[in-house]
Amino acid sequence: MRNLVMVVSYDGSAYSGFQVQPKDTTVQGKLEEAVRVLTGEQVKIHGSGRTDAGVHAREQVIHFHTESQIPVQRWRLAMNARLPSDIVVKSVREAPLDFHSRRSAKRKTYRYTIQRTRYADVFTRHLAFFHPTPLDLEAMRQALVLFEGEHDFSSFCSTRRPDGSHVRTIYETAFDFRPEPDAGDGDAGVIHIYMTGNGFLHNMVRIIIGTLIEVGEGKRPSSDMPAILAAMDRKKAGPTAMAHGLMLWKVEY
Amino acid sequence: MRNLVMVVSYDGSAYSGFQVQPKDTTVQGKLEEAVRVLTGEQVKIHGSGRTDAGVHAREQVIHFHTESQIPVQRWRLAMNARLPSDIVVKSVREAPLDFHSRRSAKRKTYRYTIQRTRYADVFTRHLAFFHPTPLDLEAMRQALVLFEGEHDFSSFCSTRRPDGSHVRTIYETAFDFRPEPDAGDGDAGVIHIYMTGNGFLHNMVRIIIGTLIEVGEGKRPSSDMPAILAAMDRKKAGPTAMAHGLMLWKVEY
């Protein structure tokens, strides 16, 4: 028995999320199918985390146990030949049997992309949330850093589990604004927001982003963030931002 | 009667090209439909040139005559509200009635994108021709510049018209290579090839690119280009490169 670890990238547009669900097309399902076609084995693939329907991954990490004797250096091409064009295996390594893509993960980084321009870019429309009206970028920056550190993120979680902890640590955030040349208005451009943490609750990044967008629109002051966290009440935060702007950026072990 | 000129961008993936064809979905058809829904008029839209099935446009220029009294500054949003998400109007202006998007054009620039990496980027796979094996970039650069100037491009044209001239002028070319960080091999990265000319024959850019790729693969020396041009024979040139790597970049008047 071997434990194979793969870094995979996918355009989530066509999928009902990462995790296998009856009747739905999922990334996990496509990966398991590729392994089955390649080796004849029905393996169970584990990801570092589930991504929701429409969410992308630059570097998702998966692992699975296999009896296959195919050498590790052959797997990347063999998998890519059997995967649809919106999923790609970037690298493959063998790990000790106790390595687990989710449980062994130390840090995860997500990126959310907002396109703040007069018209949507047709070539990246599947990767960015289009926001044609002005945003107060400085207020958004100020609000973002208030999420750093250890907090109870109950207000930023769509499905609370009564038995589970909602405490997570955000180690760092980054607000990367790339202005559009010749746009005229100073806030026009593409915004990439990065969050790195020890784990994320269901929809946590998207609810934080939905709240930051309300800050950018002037509907809330950035100084409200601590009170929203302290309320531990989903209704106090903003809406869940659309899935297609979100990308699992990297996972560190 | 007014003459409206629009700069439009489209992801050509879903279209049977720019020009209206019976039974096929085309960019021109979608634009004419948007005008019809907006004004009730059945206008005839003219583009600066036809782009083939699957070819994209960053800045295609179109014009049409209309009786509509809608102010020019209202058209962009009104059109974009009625267009599918893969076509966008970037700007609108009014021009003298004798302005013609194709006949008045002075220079056109096309860009072709080749992704020379070990695996395809799932997020830009609709915009780049994926070439996983090595390419001799220096030989491709040398071959590209040999197309500059005035030439008979009969060897680089898929449909010769017995009555028409096949002489065109390429004013300038550019070879923009963006290396992939940490890739290991020196030629790994994304290649953007730009060609600016007074006009382009059918499939001319794609046949030049197909020939350059053969040069990059070591199948032909770059020094063969003058002889291929001189032969005025389509069979002497390389294959027609795939449509999805091609983008109409800009049109100058």
Automatic annotation (TrEMBL), chains A, B:
Highest taxon above the source species: Bacteria
Residue intervals passing through the bilayer: none
SUPFAM superfamilies linked: Pseudouridine synthase
CDD domains named among the record's database cross-references: PseudoU_synth_EcTruA (cd02570)
A biological process term (GO) from this entry: tRNA pseudouridine synthesis
Active-site residues per Swiss-Prot or TrEMBL entry: 52
Purpose: Formation of pseudouridine at positions 38, 39 and 40 in the anticodon stem and loop of transfer RNAs.
SUBUNIT field: Homodimer.
Protein name as it appears in the record: tRNA pseudouridine synthase A
